[in-house]
Amino acid sequence: MERRDFIKMLGIAGVNTAAYAACSTYMQEALASTTIVKDMLTASAHCRKGSLADIEHVVILMQENRSFDHYFGTLRGVRGFGDPRPLQLRNGKPVWEQLQDGDYSKDGSITKPYQLPQGATPDGEGAAGGVFLQDPAHDYKSGLAAWNNGLMDQWIPQKGIVSMAHYTERDIPLYFKLARAFTICDAYFCSHNGATDSNRSYFWTGTCNGKAANSYFSGIGNGPRSDWKSYPESLEERGVSWKFYQDGLKWTTDQFAGNYGDNTLEYFKQYKEKTTAIYKKNQSVNSVLRTEVNTPSQFEKDISDNALPAVSWIVAPEAFCEHPKYPPHFGEYYVNEILRALLANKDVWKKTALFITYDENGGFFDHVPPPVPPVTGMDFFASAGLPANFLSEGIKITTTKSNEAGKEEGRDFNSENASKDKPNDAKETESEKQERESTRPLGMGMRVPLLVISPWSAGGRVCSEVFDHTSFISFLDTWIEKRFAAKGEYSKGPSFPNVSSWRKAIAGDLTSTFNFNSEATEAMDTFVDKTVPTKIFTKKEQTDAKAKEKAYFSPQNSDVNADPDVNKPTAMKQDRTQCDLLPVDYDFQVSFAVLPARGSFPASLRFSCVNAGKLGVSLTLYTYDQLGTTFLYSMEGKRPGGYQVTLKDNLFLLNAQSDYRCAVHGPNGYLVEALGNLESPTEAAFNFHYNLSRDEGGKILSFHFPNWPTANGTLKLINAYTGKETMIPNGTKRVDVATEDGWYDVSFVDAVNTDSKFLRRYAGHIENGKMSRTDPAIGMIYDEVTRVYIPAVV
């Protein structure tokens, strides 16, 4: 049977269809000829100015095990391989240059992100998107070790060479088309630095309650099941319709059926009660793909019958969920079918928001340090009887301990550390016991992709607000209130209690991913009819795919060296084109000041942060040279009444005769650096304090010096974007700096003593509540000598 295809996209016809060899000819042709993006944009052109209340249907597809850089590191506009302010490793190299042995005290073999080779499929043909790829380690222990307290330097020892592999637009063309046409989030992090079940527990229940392994969920067997409240139960209580769409239940030996065990709620106690409504809605087969040629799937029926619920969760079969070893193209095909179904009823599409994300990074490299609560530092300082200044007052974190019987005590939903319970009947070594009883942060984990596809997210934009899986719960709570309160059907109750105080402060609610102020630019076009036959995978096709899964590709050093960009700077991998950047409400500033030794108190470096923005902020402070460690800080957004939030901490320098060097990384490319030497006269002359202000348009950034020192000295300001140098003599009260699309990167150095190591560097983006443009320095390299951005060249 042939059906009308309302879907006309921007053409992926140029892709080598041999890349789809593991699947059917139909899947190859359907993806190669799909015109879904163009049709969706055409159908969106009618959209008037609106609000969150105009969305009637939220559809969420969570796929498996891909990091942001792994998929989108080369995409224009995002913080990818061309990030001009990447983290610096302990050996002074950028984070891209991972050592294979993980020992940064000496030189060693380096592996940078590398493009998967074309023709790496078992039959030696096609784009890498069709590759059955080796599955890296993605458990909590190796994830925590690769993160390495924020140093981000143990990827290859923990995950292998495969972890540094990445795709390009040629490999995953549909996803790049969607990212260019709608909205992509480049600061969406998985909730937990580990495997599937704990992350999906955050997604559906707001927490994993310290359970940091699949063994607590899908591997529980006959053991005690989790039973804390899930978000679907909250929807049920409020009378909001919801449904799970899945092509089967549980994991099966047939990779084209079932749900790969990814419906984590089935492991919860309350979802075993077969007489309940939540069981029936969660544990029912509601197909997305057709199983008979002439019979639409349940997802198609619900859309065509205008019966799509308010909230829909889609759980894909193994073959289509993108978990290695299965290729990305299988997932693209599955997504294409979802989009086709939605657009088949234009009235439904016009009122729908579709989110596509991934439960975890799957062991694949990502370069951005994730936001992590300071639980380790808090626990260490508390045990030593010392004050810990890592957390602002509005965030509550409850730490736990293990008693003599090996049972954890003190946990609640504000706890952010892994469980300290001793496994039943487990025999532990002393080191294993110490590790279990230590305070280990659960996450956030690494960045994963998030695509937001809706008439109100069209435009090819980037959103750089920090999100995690609990952001979906925050979004649904916010949307339900707006949507149903507008109809008089809902009154706001308390927010979902499982989400911790820290995550509520740091992770946004996804509302910034939409632009409800767009004007229609063209009338609705007539759709181009295109017939694509419905496809059912034959047993032979499924058997062939399973054989290819067993013959998966395992990259070696020779494959790394085969990357055509292997001898080029990593920044050259990324498209330098700018695009629209959605506004987010970050407004914070970090400063450093040297405090000389006083009596028994050694010299220290005063870290201060003031947050005047609506959004909370997580910062990672790196100390190079002296302390050689990291510090984690978290602050909530401004308090009611507009009161700023302030956080201060003193970093005690180990040797008052030596150098210091610190860097603070924050959201949306924020970076502050402080370098100097306590013996240098520059420190006395330039130990200044500053305040920032900006004009309304975000074009001018002003530095104010209220306490300029009396010592003789002259600063030089260097604008990294323009190369302009400005002399700032002693007594100056204010200096203005022109931004580039709201972006700034300003260095203050000693203008007189050229041998001075003194540096204060401030880089970030000015927010003014309006649309701006992505960082123009993406794809360039920061020259640490001249303090300006220069082109990345071989």
UniProtKB/TrEMBL annotation:
Gene Ontology molecular function: phosphatidylcholine phospholipase C activity
Record-linked Gene3D superfamilies: Alkaline Phosphatase, subunit A
Listed Basic and acidic residues bias regions: 404-439
Domain of life according to the entry: Bacteria
Region (Disordered): 401-441
One Pfam short name: Phosphoesterase
Alphabetical keyword list: Hydrolase
PANTHER family for the chain: NON-SPECIFIC PHOSPHOLIPASE C1, NON-SPECIFIC PHOSPHOLIPASE C4-RELATED
The protein's name: Phospholipase C, phosphocholine-specific
Organism: Phyllobacterium myrsinacearum
